[in-house]
Amino acid sequence: MDQIVVRGGQRLKGRIPISGAKNAALTLLPCALLTDEPLTLRNLPRLADVDGFGHLLNQLGCSTTIEGSRPEDFGRVMTARATTLTSTVAPYDIVRKMRASILVLGPLLARAGEATVSLPGGCAIGNRPIDLHLKALEAFGAEIELASGYVKASAPGGRLAGGKFTFPVVSVGATENAVMAAVLAKGTCVLENAAREPEIVDLCNCLVAMGAQIDGIGSETLTIEGVDRLHGATYRVMADRIEAGSYACAAVITEGDVELVGAKAAEMEATLAALREAGATVEEVKGGIRVAMSGRAQPVTLSTSPYPGFATDMQAQFMAMATLGTGASLFTETIFENRYMHVPELARMGCDIDVRGRSAVVRGVDALVGAPVMATDLRASMSLIIAGLAARGETQVNRVYHLDRGYERLEEKLQAVGADIERISAG
Ligand code: EPZ
């Protein structure tokens, strides 16, 4: 397994290109299943999960062709085309490696009237149930059966009727599956308390470009008028607001000055507010966002919540930033039940963090010391890199396959702004 080695002490200075958003790409790719025409996605990030999703689409009979990049994009162009589906089954061996595979459930149900998808199971940060995905689909007329670890869904008469569902808990993935199922329904589908993340807006905008009729995009109530068919489209994946926020935290902890090229301030207001609370200079510049810092971070009090609140995907990175800050910072993780796996690893570097249930108190220390640490999940891995960038000496981050799922060309991007970082391939 590859290892990433970071030698701390360098201030990050310069421009960091922000890639297409992983969590947008993973819900845009399954849209190709909704039509027999080609869907071309621009600015697709080079990530393990994107490649994995491409393989899953191929298993279902959807061709995927990677082209080069457009000059104005950092990502690649992929054209996906499901002329006819050869399967409606997403098997366990694929789904268990990539939870986002569950996002083929809605599109397969809409296109083929049936779908058999392995239950994704839990992961490091929580047990990740999919009950809300299934309840929303049932509200639209689907018949759902759970058997031998698989979800078997079908639409009576081959087409969802329509209906209304109010989410008791905001769920990004369940909202995505429900929207993709609804666009080809016979009638109207209404979702209340829907997730409002920018990635959902990206999904809805792409579906509209394909001929879907969706009202309330960006709000908590989505009204989808089913249509008989969708056509192909060309759509550009939004910039990754979590990648951008992650590098912003790296800039702050190293007292650097970076420009996040391609990042959109309007999509990350809570993150930018938290950076300013920590004492960073944050300003919109042409085509991106500048983040600069001198001195130690001020204490922050952050509680994760659905968009537009402070993103759970930013919690670990801000916690790493706070470890060298002044005073005590307080974090509360309200979305996932086990999203402090980075804490024991950060503690190995000399951080002072006290976890009490869903909350964690981080007391700033004067110095961190590099150490061998273990990546446990995607965002936890990034928090270890962030701490390593400011630690004295060398930090070896192991199991970096977690990082490769969500951060494209991480070491290249950091080297380009002065970080002393390298990947050691284990062969
Ligand atoms: C998406 O996961 C993201 N993944 C996650 O990013 C992100 O942390 C999460 O949304 C929250 O923003 C992708 O987009 C691929 P949820 P998702 O459904 O859809 C509970 C990363 O690091 N819930 O919004 O799985 C659930 O347990 C990843 O990039 C149910 O109870 O998250 C959680 O407590 C990690 N039943 C809460 O809702 C359900 O059916 C929010 O989960 C579904 C969810």
TrEMBL record:
Keywords: Cell cycle, Cell division, Cell shape, Cell wall biogenesis/degradation, Cytoplasm, Peptidoglycan synthesis, Pyruvate, Transferase. Pfam families: EPSP_synthase. Its EC number is 2.5.1.7. The active site is at 123 (proton donor). It is found in: Cytoplasm. GO terms for cellular component: cytoplasm. GO terms for molecular function: UDP-N-acetylglucosamine 1-carboxyvinyltransferase activity. Belongs to the EPSP synthase family. MurA subfamily. Cell wall formation. Adds enolpyruvyl to UDP-N-acetylglucosamine. This is UDP-N-acetylglucosamine 1-carboxyvinyltransferase. It comes from Sphingopyxis panaciterrulae. The gene is murA.
